[in-house]
Amino acid sequence: MRSERRAVLSRDLSLAGIMVVAGLFGGGVPAVRAVPVVATTIGVLIAIAAYAGEHDLVPGLFPEVATMTTFAVAILVGVAFVVLLSAPTDVVAAAGLTGGGIGYGLYRIIFGVIRPVPSYRLETGRDVDPGAPDSEEP
Question: DSSP letter at 87?
């Protein structure tokens, strides 16, 4: 496994893990059981946002714009869940955070372990090492 791919996997799976742990500490498994539609929907929308940014989902549009648009839709759906569901806000938020982490983690496993990490993600995921010979000095 190339070092760039390993670095992307490490960072992204760590982020997904942090989201899941934060969601579970916020409301625990009961939150996800209380409103599974929230966890599932937000998880799918977060995975779509990642896919949109890495696979040129909307040709002619910058990948970051597609990602942010999809992410904004996920946030609006989350707010709609808070308004429309009878569950408390913290329960809905915990379920959404947990679902988002699971969705992003599964996306990165699919496009990182099972299939290769998209080249766009490898290019944008590079860290600038000031000691590297090809990095620019400020």
Answer: S
CB-CB contact of 128 with 65 (8 Å): no
* Cα–Cα distance for residue pair 52/67, rounded to 1 Å: 6
Domain holding 40, by residue range, is 3-122
CA distance 75 to 80: 9
**Which of 20-24, 28-32, 57-61, 133-137 is the least confident region?**
133-137
Q: Rounded to an integer, what distance in angstroms lies between the CA atom of residue 22 and that of residue 98?
A: 7
Which amino acid type is present at position 98? Answer: T
Is residue 52 assigned to a domain? yes
Q: Is residue 127 part of a domain?
A: no
Q: What is the pTM for the complete model shown?
A: 0.80
Give the pLDDT confidence of 14-51 residue by residue, as tens digits. Answer: 999 999 999 888 877 888 888 899 999 999 999 988 88
**Structural domain contains residue 132:** no
Reply yes or no on whether the pLDDT at 11 is more than 50: yes
Q: Based on the structure, what is the number of domains in the chain?
A: 1
Q: Are 54 and 111 in contact (CB under 8 A)?
A: yes
Residue 105 is assigned to a structural domain of this protein: yes
